[in-house]
Amino acid sequence: MIPRSEQKQETRARILASASEALRSRGLGASSVGEVMAGAGLTVGGFYAHFENKDALMLEALERVFVERRAQLFGLIEPGTPAEQRKQAARAYLSRKHRDMDEQCCPLPAILSELPKQSEAFRGLLEKHLQLLLKAMVAGEPDRDAMRQTALADLATMIGALTLARALGPTPFSDELLAAAKAAIR
């Protein structure tokens, strides 16, 4: 028999997994607590035993997704100069495979337009994620301050291009957009 505290942790993890999947595919606000709980195989009645409200759930789910995505992205990058590593990151992030993913994809294209309407906590979490990405992109650079601006432009190019490519779907123009953005990363 599983101890109650362990069972509660497992249930919470299932809820977070369902919420993470929902925010990747539909954004922060489109999924209801009922949908998230159903995705976890649970009823809505048990929700408040795990989370204060929907915002608390989605904030924790978003942080979880950001941590996973950073690990996945940087797990694909082989040792090299910082510039080479940024190019590797761009190749992975701006791939057709990533554009067309349903699961394990970057949540930013699905949520960016919603963030201005969310609480400061969501915007703060986004900034934290971007700062961590940026820090990794300039690590090892001899002149980090100068490279920070280049890396920041690269990051904005990557996120913007993926957002546009996802909106366009798997089309030749979308492919062209991804290729142009990859070529622009320095």
Characterize the structure shown.
The protein is an all-alpha fold and 186 residues long. The model has no long low-confidence stretch (mean pLDDT 90). It starts with a helix and ends with a helix. Helix 8 packs antiparallel against helix 9 (172-184). It has nine helices and no strands. It is globular. The chain has one domain (4-184): Tetracycline Repressor, domain 2. 70% of the residues lie in helices and 0% in strands.
The CATH superfamily appears as: Tetracycline Repressor, domain 2
Terminal CA distance: 55 Å
Spell the H/E element sequence: HHHHHHHHH
Radius of gyration: 18 Å
The biggest beta sheet, please? none
Percent helix among the residues?
Answer: 55-70%
How many distinct beta strands? Answer: 0
Q: Beta-strand percentage?
A: under 5%
Catalogue the unreliable spans: none
Question: CATH first level: which class?
Answer: Mainly Alpha
Overall CATH architecture: Orthogonal Bundle
Summarize the structure.
Helix content is about 70%, strand content about 0%. The protein has helices spanning about 5-25, 35-40, 55-75, 80-95, 95-100, 110, 120-140, 145-170, 170-185.
